[in-house]
Write a structure and sequence with these properties.
Elements: H1 2-28, E1 41-43, H2 59-70, H3 75-80, E2 84-92, E3 98-105, H4 110-121, E4 129-131, E5 134-136, E6 138-146
Antiparallel strand pairs: 1-6, 2-3, 2-6, 4-5
Length: 153
């Protein structure tokens, strides 16, 4: 029961943190073509959760900065005003490598989907999840949001 409460607290805290960060980034991107909001949804490859979750080096703030710095809103999508979230699933392996990135849901075109996949593929190694002192794989789901630019009249 205690482990369930800990997971619940972690997911809730991550969710509230990500909402706050995404609002800050949206304010910074007034003219922006990209807004990235991250809510890490953790999924465990077995019925047991890891004692220590995998983490991007530097935490959630560093992950948001990485995405914001490297994400390019595709010109083809921008010109049509396409916007929405691409949900990606990936696994952080026992050695921290990001593996098997896949799009699990996207209302957007192939250009935004390819760009979101590219971002996941170029991520540096993560700090792997651990259980009983042993590194274990851990699955994540991340939404990357593309927002169409405001039209200036």
């Amino acid at each position: 029961m205690n482990k369930i409460n800990n997971v619940y607290r972690y997911v809730c805290c991550s969710l509230f943190f990500a909402i706050g960060i995404s609002q800050i980034i949206a304010q910074e991107n007034e003219t922006g073509f990209i807004s990235d909001s991250i809510t890490l949804e953790n999924r465990f490859p077995t019925d047991r959760e890891p004692e220590q979750f995998a983490q991007y080096p530097g935490g959630d703030v560093a992950l948001l900065k990485f995405i914001k710095t490297n994400l390019n809103y595709p010109e083809q999508s921008r010109s049509f005003g396409n916007h929405g979230k691409v949900y990606l699933r990936f696994i952080v392996s026992e050695n921290g490598e990001v593996k098997d990135p896949r799009i699990i849901r996207s209302p957007l075109d192939v250009y935004c989907n390819k760009e979101a996949l590219r971002i996941i593929k170029i991520m540096p190694k993560w700090i792997p999840a651990r259980t009983k002192g042993v590194n274990v794989p851990m699955e994540f789901v991340i939404p990357i949001e593309f927002i169409a630019p405001k039209r200036i009249k």
